[in-house]
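2024-03-11 09:14:02 DEBUG pipeline.ingest accepted 1 chain
2024-03-11 09:14:02 DEBUG pipeline.ingest length=311
2024-03-11 09:14:03 DEBUG pipeline.predict start
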Amino acid sequence: MPLNNPISLTEPPKKIKELDGKQLYYSFLSGAQRIFENQKLLNKINVFPVSDADTGTNLASTMRSIMDAIIPTDNFKQAAGAIADAALTGARGNSGIIFAQFLYGFSNEIKTDQTIDIRSFAISMRNAVDYAYDAIANPLEGTILTVIKDWANYLYALKDIIDDFIKLLGEAYEIAQQSLIDTTKKLEVLARSHVVDAGAKGFVVFLEGFLDFFTQGGTKVPAITTDLTAEEPDTSAVAHDIITFRYCTEAMLTGSDLNKAKIQNDIRNCGDSLVIAGSVKKMRIHTHTDFPAELFFKSAKVRYHHLPESG
């Protein structure tokens, strides 16, 4: 007996031309699941900017903060803002804070409310790239920055050609994959260790989950398991160099008129790998230093101008 509706077995998913806030949030959860699955791998291949084997842990912390926040709302701009704020609160390490800053830029650039179309999505993503670069004291190509930029630029290039988010994100994902492969050619430390950049790899596996949510129809709430680890290739030969600065140090500043340029100028000599993300009301600082107390004091001095100069 023939099936009543055989076409449905091979029918492609319906086009998705607009996204609402719930779809954005659940797609982020799907991306977060890929980060959790690949956490150990990302730690193993982490050799830049510091070979401290914590990129997977840091990105997982950032994603867990998003997962734990009560975000689902139909309003796209509200959801994007809540995701960005949660990411900033939970962000850890260079890659986590860069990603959080990119999300802040995206949420800040959104001009719509309830839903977003492909053109507005692509423009906001491309504009958010500048926020990510601005967060880093000394940005280098061949990192998560490059892959974010290449991905967002390709979204922008397709914004007037493609009318389906599934197709848009699928094609842009392929560009991100190639950009990830190319990171090994752009940084000597990656070429020497025969690995791609760990932060960039984290962004690409996030995009894989992000895309998967939409290829599954864009409606199903993803199942999240934070203690899974994906099958890993043999990366035991990855060399981890001597760490220059002992402490990976982070601080959160809150206020009403935080001056990022002044904060960056005052603390840039405390160590290296300085990243500052956030807005005039909330900022997260990350750096590697031998003197965490000095970083905290200088950061507080900028926040509270009445504090005395150190002796």
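2024-03-11 09:14:41 DEBUG pipeline.report Confidence is low (pLDDT under 50) at residues 1-10, 228-242, 304-311.
2024-03-11 09:14:41 DEBUG pipeline.predict end
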